[in-house]
Design brief:
The protein is mainly α. About 70% of the residues lie in helices and about 0% in strands. It has one domain.
């Protein structure tokens, strides 16, 4: 948990616990790189709420485009937020929408960092060449 508080103090609640599980086994350098990339990719729940409110002004689905749910964004746009009912539901579920998006991004970034920065065990071992 201390790595999360050190590198990503702005996240909280379930997102903080989820990210803490991901970076527990990472080295400090990996955790620092994870925090840098994740901070750029994550979405703030309040932004999703504000974009969902924009749905009442005629641009329904903007919040779905913002969290990379293009299909749902188009559906909301063409149906007026599923006759406004979908937009109202999303106003109550904006934190869950943000958490799901951020969880997907955290998984992708953890895999990216894991591939880019191999474990310390793998460093220093010469490559084997089989004949």
């Amino acid at each position: 948990m201390s790595k999360v508080l050190r590198y990503l103090p702005e996240i909280e609640d379930d997102e903080q616990l989820y990210v803490a599980q991901l970076i527990t086994d990472m080295s400090d350098e990996q955790a620092k790189q994870f925090a840098y990339v994740y901070r750029e990719r994550r979405r703030e729940p309040i932004h999703i709420l504000l974009l969902a409110l924009v749905g009442f002004l005629g641009v329904a689905g903007a919040h779905r485009f913002y969290i990379d749910e293009i299909g749902m964004g188009v559906l909301y746009l063409l149906t007026g937020g599923l006759c406004v009912i979908g937009t109202i539901i999303d106003l109550f579920n904006y934190k869950d929408l943000a958490f799901r998006y951020n969880r997907r991004q955290a998984d992708e970034v953890a895999a990216l960092v894991g591939d880019a920065f191999p474990d310390d065990d793998e460093e220093g071992t010469p490559p084997s060449f089989d004949a």
